[in-house]
Structures are given as structure tokens and as C-alpha cells.
Design brief:
By secondary structure, this protein is an alpha/beta fold. It is built from four helices and seven strands. The strands form two sheets. A five-stranded mixed beta sheet has the order 2-1-3-6-7, with helices on one face. Strand 1 (3-7), helix 1 and strand 2 (29-31) form a beta-alpha-beta unit. The model is unreliable at 92-123 (pLDDT under 50). One of its GO terms (molecular function) is electron transfer activity. This is Flavodoxin domain-containing protein. Its cofactor is FMN.
Amino acid sequence: MKGVIFFSSRYGSTAQYAQWIAEATGLPSFDVEEESANPSDYDFLVLGSPVIYHKLMFHKWVKRNLASIMSRPAILFSVSGAGPGRSWMAGSRKAFRLTSFPTWSTSPCAAVRIRRSLPGTTG
């Protein structure tokens, strides 16, 4: 099976993680801004993006390629600059004058299975 890593990165952290995953797995990796970033050429996908203002940074690319993405096994990973825990939220509230934050986990890096398991894996 032919797999690939597609990523988007603003400051380079997600690109670094994509490179590490590529080195560990032998999969090619592409920035979604590259012309050759075509998910329909592959059997399974690893997708990486930071979350900026509550949206995946590559949400427009995903929308354009949704049919190809949804028809293949895919894994999503996200990289955040925030440290573990919630201590950073107090400063963010002040800086952005927000009064409340959602209660989801603030893990600095999470890999989430969004479609189904990769071929040959369980779980």
C-alpha cells in the first residue's frame, strides 16, 4: 500500500513533526501548498495541521480534496505551541479579553484516528 503525509505549517513545528514521521515510516511528505499535494494518488493518508483560531490551518485544502480524503484511511495529527496543562489559558483570556474557554483537552500534540485504522493495524 502506498501512503503519504500531507501537512500545513505556519511556524515550522508541524513541518518538523511531518519530517520526523516521514523519516520513521519512509513515507513521502508534502506541504499542502505544493502543486503535487494530491491525495488521490495514495492508498492511505497521514494529515498534519496546527489549529489556528479554532480551525485546522489546512481546512480549505481539506474541503477541496474531501472526496479523496474520505475515501481512504486517514490519520490526523496536530501540533500546538502551548505547553501541557491549562496555565497558558489565564494569559490568553487577558490578552484576548475572552471570558471563557471550551473544556476540551489541551494536549500539546495529539494523533487522532479520524477515519479507520491503517491497513495491517488493529484498533
